[in-house]
Design goal:
Structural class: alpha+beta
GO cellular component, one term: cytoplasm
Shape: globular
CATH topology of the largest domain: Transferase(Phosphotransferase), domain 1
Binding site for ATP: 42
Strand order of the largest sheet: 1-2-3-5-4
Protein name: Death-associated protein kinase 2-like
Family: Belongs to the protein kinase superfamily.
Mean pLDDT: 84
Pfam family, one: Pkinase
Number of domains: 2
Radius of gyration: 21 Å
């Protein structure tokens, strides 16, 4: 049961400057009045009606809160408090100021596989803890892997954004068409039952990109990307992997497996020779290998550009919606009458996944 306070957040926290904004709210710096500790406040607008797509569903917020409240781990974003008013929910979460892991790596002159592995270990430990609680993230991607502080000698990984996360109940099946195209597993595309193994596919894609600066299944369109995923159409091109160890490729191959039951678990990943060498020879081979930094920087620049483009597009669309919805006297009636605000109940799964995934890529 999610623990949500019905009190005024400003009675407990001083609200500071805006740190970021999204479709349905904003993130602001906050300071706890009792202790002086600094946190971040996620101010989320709630949907006003069932038919509206403006704002988040209270049920989805409750699910995210319940999940975060039971995931107390050093590599997972901490949740401190939750407040609810009539129009919004405020999540008081850990202030993570180090930015995205991929941005941090892109700023470096070079990076060895040994250094990359230290980051992968932390990601795997966080994911492993999550999975031990029967919780799957379902949206693991570079944007959701952050650093608590990038200015320390050994930066600390934080996994964020549990908006798509689910607690998986044994004996029950869960399906979803949500996610970002290049990181989702074949079972998502095929609308098959999902499991914690779905996250491990995403780990394989992230590792592939980290080492080569290339996305294994990326096509010229979302449809082509999804087709590549289902047909397992990927390879280790020498041009991009000439600095990569054989053990690293083996690690990726054991995650990019179509059958979810055959993929390595997070615990098995931590014992793989690439992560934990069994012999001196394996350790030596790993230490001589490095990341393709030139290509990685190109990939990260393209990724950031696409994120900026999508944000501008989303803001423009939201402005158009708001203008459309001001043409009548009653706001609730306007929101219900806006064509863009209606859920297409007749859409088939194949076209639905293209629409939803393209909007979140």
């Amino acid at each position: 049961m999610a623990l949500i306070k019905l009190q005024n957040v400003e009675d407990f926290y001083e609200i500071g400057e805006e740190l970021g904004s999204g479709h349905f709210g904003q993130v602001r710096a906050v300071r706890e009045r009792a202790t002086g500790a600094r946190w971040a406040g996620k101010f989320l607008k709630l949907r006003r009606s069932v038919s509206s797509r403006l704002g988040v569903e209270r049920k989805s917020v409750e699910r995210e809160v319940e999940i975060l409240q039971c995931l107390q781990h050093c590599n997972i974003m901490a949740l401190r408090d939750v407040f609810e008013s009539r129009a919004e929910v405020v999540l008081i979460v850990e202030l993570i100021s180090g930015g995205e892991l991929f941005d941090f790596i892109a700023e470096k002159e070079n990076l060895s596989e040994n250094e990359a592995i230290e980051f992968m270990k932390q990601i795997l430990k966080g994911v492993g803890f999550m999975h031990s609680k029967h919780i799957a993230h379902f949206d693991l991607k570079p944007e959701n892997i952050m650093l608590s502080d990038k200015h320390v000698e050994h930066p600390h990984i934080k996994i964020i954004d549990f908006g798509l996360a689910q607690r998986l109940t044994p004996g029950e099946q869960y399906r979803s068409l949500c996610g970002t195209p290049q990181y989702i597993a074949p079972e998502v595309v095929n609308y098959e039952p999902l499991s914690v193994a779905t996250d491990m596919w995403s780990i394989g894609v992230i590792t592939y990109i980290l080492l080569s600066g290339m996305s294994p299944f990326q096509g010229d369109s979302d449809e082509e990307t999804l087709r590549n995923i289902v047909t397992m159409n990927y390879e280790f091109e020498d041009h991009y992997f000439n600095q990569t160890s054989a053990m690293a490729k083996d690690f990726i191959e054991k995650l990019l497996v179509k059958d979810p039951s055959e993929r390595m678990t997070a615990e098995e990943c931590l014992l793989h020779p690439w992560i934990k060498p069994l012999t001196r020879k394996q350790a030596a081979n790993r230490s001589r290998s490095s990341i393709n930094m030139k290509n990685f920087r190109k990939f990260n620049a393209r990724r950031k550009w696409k994120m900026s483009y999508n944000m501008v597009w989303a803001c423009n669309r939201l402005c158009r919606l708001q203008l459309l919805c001001k043409t009548s006297a009653k706001e609730d009636r306007d929101l219900r009458s806006c064509e863009s605000d209606q859920e297409d109940t007749d859409t088939k799964p194949a076209s639905l996944i293209r629409r939803r995934l393209s909007s979140s890529s």
